[in-house]
């Protein structure tokens, strides 16, 4: 069995402003850095052997905070990037026109092959994410990788692992620095393949204050 932990990056300035990020970027807020420290303390005793991040700045910044606790180098993989939101990147949700808001919702509403202009479809997102996690099975026996990724990307990954189509309406909320886990199971009780063990755990964010870090 292969165990893979999944962490969404910490809160960013654009998250706080409700601005669409996609593959554009903004730095972590102070709250985002605290969240990263909290999840680092949560995972420090889980035997993590590899720390792999999306190459977008907000994910790398989160991973570097984790790296200080885990004492591991940060590897990057551009396949872990967020959904490309095309022409909407950088715009505040509250300032979208009705047409732009309809375009924003289309990839998340169950419309097959929907894409924001100059962006990508959820199926394209799912394909590259599954390529990335399938490569993890080539790591040495006993490896326990942790991936630092993004909200829509992780929601898509977890949904497809559960057997949903990539374009299925979004039903999974993954907050900043939430912790999820997927396993590759080859045992006799379940069909071979990836399964979801945990999705969106934020207990570590609720049980610590900034003064404890």
From TrEMBL:
Pfam families: His_Phos_1
Keyword Secreted attributed: no
UniProt-listed SMART domains: PGAM
Annotated substrate binding sites: 8-15, 58
Source taxon at top rank: Bacteria
GO molecular function: phosphatase activity
Keyword Isomerase: yes
Record keywords: Glycolysis, Isomerase
GO (cellular component) term, any one: cytoplasm
InterPro entries the record matches: His_Pase_superF_clade-1 (IPR013078), His_PPase_superfam (IPR029033), PG/BPGM_mutase_AS (IPR001345), PGM_Phosphatase (IPR050275)
Residue positions of the active site: 9 (tele-phosphohistidine intermediate), 82 (proton donor/acceptor)
PROSITE patterns assigned to the protein according to its UniProt record, in alphabetical order: PG_MUTASE
UniProt xrefs under NCBIfam families: PRK03482.1
Protein name: Probable phosphoglycerate mutase
Organism: Thorsellia anophelis DSM 18579
High-level lineage: Bacteria, Pseudomonadati, Pseudomonadota, Gammaproteobacteria, Enterobacterales
